[in-house]
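Q: I'm teaching a short session on how sequence maps to structure, and I want students to see two examples side by side rather than one. Could you give me a first protein with its sequence written out and its structure tokens following it? Keep the formatting plain so it prints cleanly on a handout.
A: Of course. Example one:
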Amino acid sequence: MFQKICCYKAENYAIEKAEQQSFLDTHSYPDSACIFCGATRENGFNIVWENEYYAVFTDINPSSQHHLQIVPKKHIESVKSLDASHVSMVKEMIEIGHDVLDGLDVPPHLRRLGFHIPPYISVHHLHMHVQALPYRSWLRRMKYPVVSGPSGREKGFSWFVEAEQAVRLLEKGVQVRILPC
């Protein structure tokens, strides 16, 4: 059953029974193969950094001079699929993003890291945008609005959440969503 519904081949990824059930309970799967599950140089991705768990590649339609995507190699549907158990993963992704931007000499005040929130995503695989500001145009900037939350909420109404906002929400046990949270 696991092999039929997941874009990964079970024989290549040893997953414990409990982890497998948790994985199946919290993730949905695309009808066809997930493009980000196949993020490799052989598949035409411009991989700039990778390890056993993550891949970083250039965005095919960059909104800024340096616009990268970080994806976990394990399929996760989106930022809405995350919970408190994923905080360390998001923190690792943030650290990787900053390390890559450090290598590009991007000053800390000109960085934006974050996630689009479904349904405002084009690929149903968790991917963190890693960007060096400024944006190429005001229209591109509108795709990544950062909105503070009203009256003690972390995030306001927005289809984008900064990575650090996402961490703080997940640490509180709050699901990331478009509405204020």
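Q: Perfect. Now a second example for contrast.
A: Example two:
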Amino acid sequence: MSQIIPRVFRSAPASLRSFSTTRPSAEFHFDTHHFVQRLEREGLNRAQAEGIMTALAEVVDESIRNMSSNMVTKADQEKQHYTQQVDFAQLKSELLLVSKNDLASLKGAHDQLQTEVERLKARLREEVTRTQAGVRLDLNLEKGRMREEGKKQELKVREVDTRIEQEIAALRTGIQMSKAATLQVLVVTGGAALLMAYVRFRA
């Protein structure tokens, strides 16, 4: 027990080499000699201590290999980082292309809408101009009709005035004739009365 051996399993005994089936003993990840000595101080014999050490070394080695298989190497990280950058650049390019296409589509729709608005404005101006022309024509026709109606009314008024004047003239003529006839009657009647009075006076 007191004999010191250099680094247990750095040059593993044949019994341990036949027991280990995973990795070479030179790649143990802890101080196997110190571990065996500690187990011997705890009361185990050399064979038991070395058996436990071997089993523990295999467990540690398997765990490290599992961890290593799940870990990503720096080269893999750089590759993944490069892939992500490429994917990001491609995504950015696609987004820019989509944005440009959307902007072009939006501009086209805006231009089309602007053209449609201008066309509607022109059509509205034509309709307003046509309506104004129609209203002016109707007003002119109405003014002409009113002038014609006024002339007709004026002619009718003149005709009525003429008729009234004619009636007044006829009435005046009738009155004059009546006066003359009355005067003649009065003269004749007066003359006859004077003649009869004279005759009576003479008789």
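Q: What should students look for in example two?
A: Point them to this: The helical segments are 14-19, 32-41, 46-70, 74-202. Also worth mentioning: The radius of gyration is 72 Å.
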